[in-house]
Amino acid sequence: MSDDAGQFNVLIHALCWIHAERTLTKLIGFSDKQRADLDHARTQVWDLYQILKAYKPSPSETKKLEIQERFDAIFTQYTSFASLNLALERLYKNKSELLLVLQYPDIPLHNNLSECDIREYVKKRKISGSTRSANGRRCRDTFTSLIKTCRKLGISFWDYLKDSVSGAGNIAPIGELILRHA
User: Fold this and answer.
1) Domain range summary for the chain, segments of one domain joined by +
2) Residues paired with residue 8 on neighbouring β-strands, in sequence order
3) What pTM value is reported for the model?
4) Distance separating alpha carbons of residues 27 and 47, to the nearest angstrom
5) Is the pLDDT of residue 57 over 70?
């Protein structure tokens, strides 16, 4: 799943609905009619998103067809706003990736959780400009991963680190903790 960045379009690829809708969020209507058309289209998209969320726990062929028809109606509509029409057309071209959840209901509709996982790394990279060596990068990536994993498991990273370095063995190895948590 991605924000439509080409490097992530590998294997079976789904698009993030949050990122897709940003295509519409960036538009600015210059007349009351254009603003109304834009608001209506965004409302339709978010209504469809809610329908997709409801579909995931109880998929059916009937619902799947209804969602596909609704998608077509939203993204092929013609409005008074040329930029909106182009944005809707662009999103319509991504139909298979936006509606992959109909085929695989267990996939998420957005990648915000993944983005939260890398946000800490991105902030550090922006502040410090990255690392000076491959070893530095590996060290940074390892510790960032450990911090995030401990946080998700409800374990203090510092307690885990002290236990590991001291060899106390009071906290199980991270792999074992992940298996228990799964």
Assistant:
1) 6-102, 112-181
2) none
3) 0.61
4) 19
5) yes
